[in-house]
Structures are given as C-alpha cells and as structure tokens.
Amino acid sequence: MNKQIILNLPVKDLDKSKAFFSALGFRFNPQFSNESAAFMVIVDDSIHAMLTTEAFFKTLIDKPVVQAKDANEVVICLSCESRGEVDSLIAKAVAAGGRIPHPPEDRGFMYDQGFEDLDGHLWNLVWSAPQA
Question: What is the pTM of this model?
C-alpha cells in the first residue's frame, strides 16, 4: 500500500465547503463520503483532506475544536507547477468566497500566496523555480 496523507478538517457547512473546494478544481471520492464527511482528493492517490462536520470531528478528539477563523494551528501548504497556477487558484478561492490574508510574496526563485477557506483554514500555494 502506498503511504498517504489525509488531513482531517472540521467544517461548519459540509455542502458549502464541498462547493468551495469543487470551484478550486478539487474532486471528492463518494466511496469514502457521507452526510458527515467528504473525502477530498488533493493530489491523486497520495494527499487528501477529509472535510468533516464539526459534530463528527468532535468524536475524533477529546479537546475543543479550534475555530480556525479565530486561531490557527496549521497552515496547509501546497506546491504549484507555476506562478500562473498560484494566481489561478487564488482567484478561484476568492470567487468562491475565500479570503486573502496577505499579498503575494515574490522572491524571484519562489512565489507564494495564501487563502483562507470558508471555515478559516489557511492554505498557502507555493511555486519554486526548478533550479531552486
């Protein structure tokens, strides 16, 4: 079996979150989805996110659920194949209701920008020059 990364993220409204990430081009695997969770494919068979209702997420932990709009514990960083892909995904995130927490950072060999999804989870998109 290939190793996988599966992020579990609590969301307030599962249908709205699915619509948001679908607008960014992500797809969902219905085989591992139900009314409490949606299995989002980020990178083929290796990186996924399980978007879960807060009620279901609470069954997985023994601490309070952090409200990502108020505090963040993690920034999810995804590499992109080009600066254009970074900009395109950012534009899609904004059009779907996401928020931009800071302007893009251009270091010449590396370009990045982040967005906040509907629940406040931070996603950073990064392109690095191949020679970097």
Answer: 0.90
How many domains does the chain divide into?
1
Query: ∠ CA(118), CA(123), CA(124), 5° rounding?
Result: 145
Separation between Cα atoms, residue 108 and residue 90, nearest integer Å: 19
Q: What is the pLDDT of residues 12-62, one digit of tens each?
A: 999 999 999 999 999 999 999 999 999 999 998 899 999 999 999 999 999
Are 115 and 100 contacting, i.e. CB atoms less than 8 angstroms apart? yes
Burial of 55 (0-12, 13-18, 19+ CB in 10 A): exposed
Q: How far apart are CA 15 and CA 45, in angstroms?
A: 23
Q: What radius of gyration, in Å, describes the C-alpha atoms of the chain?
A: 15
CB 98 within 8 A of CB 20: yes
Reported residue count of the chain is 132
Per the structure, the complete domain to which residue 38 belongs is given by 5-128
